[in-house]
């Protein structure tokens, strides 16, 4: 599935911001992320088609949460996310729908609806954060650092997401909930605390 123009534009703006904030050239980011310079240029101009693999590689290279690249900021005391209104980010074997970013204290948690297809294996070299997966239906194979675990409905797994890992659904499609947990960078915590404690 091709990402919509809104996803491409959001990623383009956030990627440019994060790369410039770090003082990285396209060539330097290409080396860190293992993504071609031409592809990065297309992503920054909102003409490329980002995949899960691309976004996770950028997250790893820039050491930031996925939602910092794809963030849409919900507001209000009640949040409802309709399946039909959510952009799908596809990879070799997984379709991800971002549902919510939760930030509290020194933690950020991203909530995703994750569907693992039977037509491919979703592999990751690793990225920032801790990964949590809860299987809703189907049988899910999770490989972490070369060790395979098979999960069924209701089963849960958590691991350091910086370790190479992968997902596969050998017996049919799998529906699961993916949570990505990050620690807030110290500088951001200090900024947040300063803003709270500043005189009004």
From TrEMBL:
Which residue intervals define the domain HTH cro/C1-type in the entry?
15-69
User: Which CDD domains has this protein been placed in?
Assistant: cupin_XRE_C (cd02209), HTH_XRE (cd00093)
Q: Does the keyword DNA-binding apply?
A: yes
Q: Which UniProt keywords apply?
A: DNA-binding
Q: Which residues form the signal peptide?
A: none
Pfam families (alphabetical): Cupin_2, HTH_3
**Record has DNA-binding as a keyword:** yes
The name this protein carries in UniProt is XRE family transcriptional regulator
Source organism phylogeny: Bacteria, Bacillati, Actinomycetota, Actinomycetes, Kitasatosporales
